[in-house]
Amino acid sequence: MKNLLDAYTKTRRHTQTLCKPLQTEDYTPQSAAFVSPPKWHLAHTSWFFEEMILKKHCDNYDVFDASYAFLFNSYYNSLGERIKREHRGLITRPSITDIYEYRQHIDAKMKTVLSNSPSKTIRELTILGINHEQQHQELLLTDLKFTFSHNPTYPRYSNKNYISKQDTTKEWLSFNADVYKIGHTDDSFSYDNELGAHRVFLEDFKISKDMVTNADFIAFINDNGYKSPKFWMDDGWHWLQNNNISSPLYWKFVSGEWYHYTLSGLQPVDVDAVLTHISFYEASAYAFWAGYRLPTEFEWEIASNQLSWGSVWEWTNSAYLPYPNFKVAEGAVGEYNGKFMINLMVLRGASLATSANHSRYTYRNFFSPETQWQFSGLRLAK
């Protein structure tokens, strides 16, 4: 089990490496209900291993602190009561020192478990926990960026701004009408929402090799894209009006020039860079304005082996729904994905903030259509 222990250790270290640039005061603030503080991410990812593995499968396990089950549960109803999501930033105690001690406690216990011929169940849950923590590594960055963006000093997190450029081709890939197979089929790890491989019929379609850039989207803005209801879904238009949205998240128009907040601070918008931090509503409106549409998640998956992807998560025109024969796992693990299959849209690909070895062409990310704070963009289809 050395390889599994190594993977566990590497993942846990990377989470803490992401936190190295932080100061003590950075660990606790919560700037919106939908983002979580770094302290909470550090604790929750540890709680996952404690709750799913150590408490249930290890004899004589000593719980680090009984109150953590309430403080750091996310949405697992079967595991008891939990603090309200919007109150995570109120957890000033335990201290960040306590949370790092908690992580050390969990790591020591997990090392013992993984070094002593763990059962198949423990191995599978550990792999799930590793992937769960990798998800939270990206969320830690997106949440931190949102919180830092509300600081009027526009703090710099790192030299890496997580902005990507591309070699523009202006080419379209063509696919003939056919029956295609969708879903995860090999023995490597996947989430349950990728399973239930099945066939879909797709009509002829084309998909752009290029991602939409900042320059492309500025043209949409300059053509009154945010002021013309004909481009927008009705729900999106109401979101736009109710929230006074007039540009992608983090953009500011200063003295005739667009700037945006990045994890390297406030910077001029690079017009050649890939557009980032837009909602599904904005992606859909841009596609309509441009005379095209968003690809479905099935079109994206079929085209993915011929596309360059991974700079931003790509909005698709597919609702997040179960595949045929989708099965909900027993116990708390069954709450991981299935219960969210309503009122959300699918994104495919990965982003520059996605952890290494945490992307695959069958991966189904999902967020509500107004979501902007993720590293999300779009490519066009027709």
UniProtKB/TrEMBL annotation:
Pathway: Amino-acid biosynthesis; ergothioneine biosynthesis. One of its GO terms (biological process) is ergothioneine biosynthetic process. Residues 8-138 form the DinB-like domain. The keyword GTP-binding does not apply. Residues 179-304, 310-382 form the Sulfatase-modifying factor enzyme-like domain. This is Ergothioneine biosynthesis protein EgtB. The keyword Transport does not apply. Keywords: Iron, Oxidoreductase. It comes from Bizionia saleffrena.
